[in-house]
Amino acid sequence: MNYIKRRLAIVTAVMVTFFLNGCASVVSSDTEVVIKRDLYGTPHVYADDVKGLFYGMGYAVAEDRLFQWEMLKRMARGTVAEVLGAEYIKSDQLARAGYDPHQIRQQIEALPQDDRAILKGYVAGYNARLQEVLDQPDLFLPIQFNEFGFMPTFIDEVDVVGVYIRTIATNFSDANEEIGNYALLTELRKIHGHEKGLALFNQLRWVNDPKSPVTISDDEQIEQPEKNLIVDRWDNGLVPISYSTLSKHRNLSIALHKADGPNTYPIASNLWIFSPDKTEINRAVFVNGPQYGNNVPGYPFGIALHGAGWDAVGASSWGLPLLNWGTNGEIAWGVTVGYGDTTDVFQVKLHPSSHDLYEYKGQWLSFSERVETIQVKDNDPVKIKFFSTIHGQVLFFDSENNTAYAKKRSWQGKEVSSLITWLRLSKVKNWSEFLSLGKSMPLSMNWYYIDKNQNIGYAFLGHFPIKSENLDPRLPTLGNGDYEWQGLLDFQYLPKVKNPSKGYIANWNNKPQGNWNNSDSLIWGQVDRVDVVGDYIDKHGRLSLVEINDLNRHASYQNININYFKPFFLELLGHPKISKDIKTAAQLIIDWDGRMMDEDGDGYYDAPGYALFNEWLRLALHMAFNPHVPEPFLTQLLQVNELRGAVGTMALLNALQGEEAGVKQDFDVLGVDRVTFMRNVMQEVLKARKDKRFEQMLYPVRTHDFSVETFGGVPINSPSEAMVIDTYMNRGTSNHQVIFYPDGVEYLDVLPPGQSGFIGPNGVRSPHYDDQLDLYANFEYKKGWLKPEQVEKNQSAVMKLRVR
């Protein structure tokens, strides 16, 4: 029986007790697990106990995503080189540096029985399906295993948590730029002197820009304790950092995130929620677009859980045992990344005669040591040593300056509990429970809320350390024991709001509220993509559902930079001493509506003003910062990002605003008055383009690519399976919409390309491999079902698992 026929049949699988990875089947002898697939292949899992419920989920994940999960597991545990060879040694090293599996196993073993049952059940279900595949590979083995030349392996509980840590915790809540910031400050002081160097540093790494757009209005923001307000302190006792150590820091950032410097880390997801008085249907409407990359198969995994205290439908990141987005009929929830400051780097002094010791509170302590062995296909194994101080794992040794740098995470030791916390979100029934659970989330996340009573809400979550008042939070901390964390910020001070007076909540990873400071790695400023959302909402009165859906399309094609600079081009246009060519170019930029579209289908963006503005911005950044900032920091400032705020673009805007900027401008980076600077830049742009007419200055269209690789270039599919949509869209990897009507909740989502990543050994794809791609391209949704009668009416297949 081939895959498609089997999926359309009602199958009863009777299994005997077995041991996989040293773990017996965790479903009791009289437990029946039922998996009902809807018309788009979404599995609805039914079971009466926790182990059975997550057994069904693990089984469904292995059915749909076996090769993807095999590679995610290997990517997270650092075992890719074992099957794909030496080119993945670096990826494996990065993975193993992220966490200690022994510590994770200790956390798992300390879980309460019911929580442990979640992981046990998930692992057993996944492994049960894998055993079926191994028993009948000619029918069930995904073709990618034959193409890459290895077989799938069983998972354990540490694998599950490891995937969670690598894809969510370290990817979205582990950024730190304190080493880079310190090196930048040091170089600026060398070039410009103490005061001027610090002034320029403050213009490039500001602590708080009061003009930054916020999610919570000032009149509803949570007051902060004084020690958490703006500071401008010095680098007490730090030893200078060597260029080689800075290079290692940059290389690590590039390896993890393909770029280095503030605002280059993954900053994911948008959201807008409307209260009833903002919509024509007089109902609250929730829309969430999580952004975490486009792949084949996709990262979001549709799932519904019914039984053992759960009754929810939604989607999970990477098929992990949690629901990041969804509804349980009482509330609905979603998430964007918060990027609050949950990590610090500590500089420790090494012993002058032995680098095996470091100084702490007047004593010389030994580093903790962990040895890992990476197996490498067709090569000898590679051994790696990881060292830790009392603060955390050592990132770099700076032997030139007799120091080492260790990272401390506020969520260290809470990785497993944070996964369980996120899963419990799908059982929350009201705002009070929502906030109570949020206290337990250590990662920096924005959680969002809507309920059947038409309430809407938002909470900025995370365990944020209280740092010594004698330090600048942008820089590393001296690790001699004098400047330790003073605890964690109390939950009462975290930004949160219910039913805001303005009638909506909008967020695109922007600042939560005005008095919340930047972290060392995310610099909030005036240039922020959330303004695209806010401007659209503010131009409408009560929005129709058509207008709400159009907001996603509108934001997807909007250049986020142009509107902030148009006033300066208008000023240029009105100046009497500006040439005709410059005024013509300025007018084209002013006339451009900011849309990045190819409506005539010629492969080029339609507006010449787009190309003109981008060329101007690139050159303006170069002319403003090149004379004052050395490499490698100049590269960070010259980045033109059309999709989210880049530090250089924000710093340039502040410089052009001068005294009107929210960030004090004590260092003149322009060198001339604003109009002269604008004119000089445009003159250079036109010189470079003198052989072309303005209307021919068009940019080729950027396509919306669905990759077959995940973190570190690790493949999750065959190279030939990459997909493309014609024009890039700055939007969610998936989209989720929720409305509570009097007769129940309506949950809609789209998870491209499709629910399943399965391609059989004969090359036949699952019918749900890419059946959501056209929906996504057309900004459409599919329905998700919660009530039993809805699931029954829309099911395409049923599988019953009775496990002993």
Index terms:
804 residues; alpha+beta; Penicillin Amidohydrolase, domain 1; Penicillin amidase (Acylase) alpha subunit, N-terminal domain; eleven-stranded mixed beta sheet; six-stranded antiparallel beta sheet; 29 strands
Brief rundown of the structure:
With 804 residues, the protein is an alpha+beta fold. The protein is 33% helix and 19% strand.
What's the number of extended β-strand segments? 29
- At CATH level 3, the topology of the domain at 3-157 and 298-312 and 707-740 and 751-803 is Penicillin Amidohydrolase, domain 1
Number of helices: 24
Q: Name the beta content range.
A: 15-25%
Distance between the termini: 25 Å
Strand order of the largest sheet: 1-29-4-5-8-9-10-11-19-20-22
Low-confidence stretches: 1-28, 228-232
Q: What is the helix content?
A: 25-40%
Q: How can the largest sheet be summarized?
A: 11 strands, mixed
CATH architecture of the domain at 3-157 and 298-312 and 707-740 and 751-803: Orthogonal Bundle
What is the CATH top level name of the domain at 3-157 and 298-312 and 707-740 and 751-803?
Answer: Mainly Alpha
The name of the CATH superfamily of the domain at 3-157 and 298-312 and 707-740 and 751-803 reads Penicillin Amidohydrolase, domain 1
The structural class is alpha+beta
